[in-house]
Design goal:
This protein is α+β, with helices and mostly antiparallel strands and about 675 residues long.
Length: about 675
């Protein structure tokens, strides 16, 4: 075995990523996706794999050629065939392969890409989503228009409503729509979402969890947010039903709730529809409660009203008495079973983070990860017993890597509430020695730092580079109850800052290897906002800052971002109605007090927090004479996803941290006489 080395960014980029497990109906096989890295091509390559769970110690086998970039596996009802999406000749279609072994074959030959799909309960029909122009009724109509557009030399784009752009794409006036067709190709696809002005599934991250077949195959359920002119400031998704033959228009089942209703799941007898629902309109991080609707009467009730966790997604046990879901939960992403009759939650798997799961018969398969283990598959019984790891995809890569170990701690934060965080020493830390610190601030802000193997903000990359890590799950974080999450709204700059300050002080007191005078703070998205905010109001302890895709000017952020519902909820309304709320914690207003060297990273295809925010901050730094650098990725969105870009990001960030920490740290004079003198902690 090779000598062990600390974990680094190249290790991170090259890890195989296991995801999306699906059990055969009898639970004997699991199909799943593995993303490997093509370093030279600077991209990930996905393949579909199978594992025979009935044979102890069986090795997983790849079903698809990597050139097909296959994903989204699903079994036929008899378990003899695995279906998946694959791309050939720039067209993504449904393919299949025999589970027993054989050559994959293309099933559909549609004029448009298949985005996602579900097989009917009898395995004879395909329900799928494709991107169609708003005024088209057939796939062919959209294909003809796309082909015609290629011949037009003019490049202007005319819009009459928002979204003009969303996440990382400009709108071309196409929407995801649902179609149904026989798998044998005996008839053409039928449009089911006639008259639906919205995307099914939702963009940018929607999946086939947003639509479902009834058990008898006669009805399709789906959720959608009707667009109109209000889409960018609305979270009013509703669940609809539509006959599977397209003989009638979709019918809204949840119109009474003006907040988010989604993820329909019919009961096995077809009499009840389970789904998830929020209660607060215009809020994307409200608690998802588990609802049950009597399909005969339309009456609804919440199954878990007293459970202070937000569920997503849902799966149903074989006997129909138990629902399974994952939730953010005290620094983990846990798998739970919920009793349908009484709503009692039972924790089945709580260590680390469950990133996906499936249930068949008495077997559950879970995709699990933690700080020192990338995702692999584990099996357990439907009652949560006999946990066993069944894949070991990165075993060879992990064999010569030395990881750090996280230590969780708690302290009293804002309002006297208990706040959770962790500290991670650098790899190879020696007793009695102090080490520079990377103080990580998570995004969201309704997010968290759980026990996970994060493929972008992975604390092990800092620990491996010689830094101790401190991470705080401040007010606004998920997994600690809805009131804790809600506390950050309209309080971006005070309550979480108090938690960060008190958490920093508590960590320094409890972990003596942290050098409180040799530390840098880093964050992305909301974490980037907080870095800009700290630069003006809490800059005294820090040697440097790193800001990735952060909010620099809260006022202009409202007018430039894509999703307005987020800004309006977090600031208590529109900017013109409540300008004082947008100025209360606006980093731009404190630039006169900036003094700490800062690296700014901002990506050109980030339409959530547009590039001008980072450029504005860099302009302020340069004009004030503060040491600063600007790293831009023209081909990335709000995230840095390409392997070589990820490594460059890490190398640039770590070089910046090393430049400003350590015994040879260059002295930096205050940029002005108005430097903030906020103490290290209250």
């Amino acid at each position: 075995m090779a000598a062990q080395h600390p974990f680094d960014a190249h290790d991170l980029a090259m890890m195989d990523r296991v995801s999306d497990p699906h059990l055969a109906p009898n639970g004997g096989e699991v199909a799943f996706t593995v993303r490997s890295t093509d370093w030279d091509a600077n991209k990930g390559i996905t393949s579909v794999w199978l594992l025979d769970l009935s044979r102890k110690g069986a090795a997983p086998r790849r079903v698809t050629d990597p050139k097909l970039n296959a994903s989204s596996p699903a079994f036929s009802p008899d378990g003899k065939t695995v279906y998946f999406l694959a791309t050939e000749n720039e067209s993504t279609q449904l393919w299949s392969a025999p589970v027993a072994g054989g050559v994959p074959a293309q099933v559909t030959h549609l004029p448009l890409d298949v985005d996602n799909y579900r097989l009917s309960p009898d395995g004879k029909s395909l329900l799928f989503s494709a991107q169609m122009f708003e005024d088209c009724q057939t796939l062919e109509c959209t294909r003809e228009r796309l082909d015609a557009q290629k011949k037009v030399k003019a490049t202007g784009r005319l819009y009459h409503r928002l979204f003009v752009r969303h996440w990382d794409e400009w709108s071309d006036h196409r929407r995801g729509q649902l179609f149904v067709m026989p798998l044998d190709g005996a008839s053409r696809p039928v449009l089911l979402t006639k008259g639906i002005d919205g995307d099914v599934p939702s963009k940018p991250d929607g999946s086939n969890a947003e639509y479902a077949w009834s058990p008898d195959g006669k009805t399709v359920y789906f959720d959608v947010r009707i667009a109109g002119k209000t889409e960018p400031w609305s979270t009013n998704f509703d669940v609809y039903s539509v006959p599977a033959d397209g003989s009638a228009l979709p019918r809204n089942l949840t119109a009474a709730n003006k907040a988010w209703d989604a993820f329909p799941l019919p009961s096995h007898d077809g009499k009840t529809l389970y789904y998830l629902a929020m209660k607060v309109p215009g809020f994307e991080a409200d608690r998802f409660g588990i609802m049950a609707m009597d399909l005969a009467t339309g009456a609804t009730h919440e199954i878990d009203p007293n459970w202070d966790r937000s569920a997503l997604p849902l799966e149903l046990s074989a006997d129909g008495k138990t629902l399974y879901t994952t939730v953010a939960d005290d620094g983990n992403v846990a798998l739970y079973a919920i009793d349908v009759a009484g709503g009692k939650p039972t924790k089945l798997l709580s260590d680390g983070s469950v990133m996906g799961f499936d249930v068949a018969g008495n077997r559950i398969v879970a995709a699990r990860q933690d700080f020192t283990h990338p995702t692999d598959l584990y099996t357990l019984t439907a009652q949560g017993r006999h946990l066993a790891q069944v894949t070991h995809f990165n075993a060879a890569r992990l064999a010569d890597i030395e990881f750090s170990r996280a230590h969780w701690f708690t302290f009293k934060g804002w309002n006297g509430d208990t706040v959770h965080g962790y500290v991670m020493p650098p790899v190879g830390a020696k007793p009695g020695k102090k080490y520079p610190v990377a103080f990580l601030i998570h995004g969201g802000p309704q997010g968290a730092w759980p026990d996970e193997f994060h493929y972008r903000w992975n604390p092990q990359t800092y620990a491996g580079a010689g830094f101790a890590v401190v991470a705080i799950n401040f007010h606004g974080s998920v997994g600690y109850g809805q009131a804790f999450t809600d506390a950050i709204s309209q309080h971006w700059g005070d309550r979480p800052l108090e938690d960060l300050q008190k958490g920093w002080a508590a960590a320094l007191k409890q972990f003596p290897y942290l050098d409180g005078h040799d530390a840098c703070a880093l964050g992305a998205s909301y974490g980037g906002y907080m870095v800009y905010w700290m630069a003006g109001v809490w800059n005294q302890p820090w040697k440097c800052f790193v800001d990735h895709d952060g909010v620099f000017d809260a006022r202009m952020m409202y007018y430039a971002t894509d999703e307005l519902w987020f800004e309006e909820h977090e600031n208590g309304g529109t900017q013109w109605e409540h300008p004082e709320n947008y100025e209360k914690f606006n980093p731009l207003d404190h630039v006169k007090d900036w003094r700490v060297p800062m690296l700014v990273v901002h990506d050109s295809r980030d339409y959530r927090i547009p590039e001008s925010q980072g450029l504005g901050a860099f302009t302020a730094l340069q004009r004030r004479g503060i040491p600063s650098e600007f790293l831009n990725f023209p081909d990335e969105n709000h995230l840095v996803l390409k392997p070589q870009n990820s490594v460059e990001w890490h190398e640039t960030v770590l070089a910046w941290l090393k430049k400003w920490t350590g015994p040879e740290t260059p002295a930096v004079a205050p940029a002005s006489s108005t430097t903030a003198e906020t103490p290290d902690a209250p």
